[in-house]
Amino acid sequence: QLDTKVKNAATYIIEKEDHTLGNILRMRLLEDKTVLFAGYKVPHPLNNSIHLKIQSDHTSTPKACLRGALSSVEADFKNVKSAFKEALKRKENDRDGGIYVQ
After folding, report:
1. CA dist., res. 97 & res. 21, Å (int)
2. 40: nearest Cα among 59, 62, 58
3. Looking at 16-60, which runs of residues are DSSP E strands?
4. pLDDT at 101 over 60
5. Taking a C-beta distance cutoff of 8 angstroms, is the pair 7, 51 a contact?
6. 33, 56 Cβ separation under 8 angstroms
7. Judging by DSSP bridges, how do beta strands 49-56 and 9-15 pair with one another?
8. How is residue 27 annotated by DSSP?
9. End-to-end CA distance of the chain
10. Dihedral class, residue 16 (left if φ above 0, else alpha if ψ from -120 to 50, else beta)
C-alpha cells in the first residue's frame, strides 16, 4: 500500500515470512542508490508476516526497487545452490576413491 504521508514510499506486507527474509531484503534494498529508506518490522511474534517499508527517490518507485532486490537475492540463492551441488559432487568423488586436488 502506498504511503499517503511520505512521498514515493510504500509498505508491503509479506505473509508467512519472518526476520530472515526481512533483514535480507532490507540490506539488499539499502545497497540500491535510489532507496532513501528501507526497514521492516514483525508486528507480532505470533503472526508470521513482515511489514517492509521502502522510500525511493524521484528516479524510481518503491515497487521497482523491491523487484530489483528480489531478483538480486534470487540470483544469490541460485549461486549458493549451484556451489553447494558442486561441492557435494566433489565430496562424493572423494568418497568413491577419486582424487581431488584444488
Report:
1. 40
2. 62
3. 35-41, 49-56
4. no
5. no
6. no
7. antiparallel
8. H
9. 51
10. left
Q: How many residues does the chain have?
A: 102
Residue 97's pLDDT band, with cuts at 50, 70 and 90, is low
- As to burial, measured by CB atoms within 10 angstroms (0-12 exposed, 13-18 middle, 19+ buried), residue 77 is exposed
Cell numbers for 80, please give them. 549458493
Amino acid (one-letter) located at 20: T
Cα–Cα distance measured from residue 47 to residue 57, given in angstroms and rounded to the nearest whole number: 31
pLDDT tens sequence across 65-88: 999 999 999 999 999 999 999 998
| pLDDT tens digits along 46-68 | 889 999 999 999 999 999 999 99
The x, y and z cell numbers of residue 33, run together, are 542508490
Angle at 76 between CA 28 and CA 23, to 5 degrees: 35
Sign of CA dihedral 95, 98, 101, 102: negative
CA angle 11, 4, 16 (to 5 degrees): 15
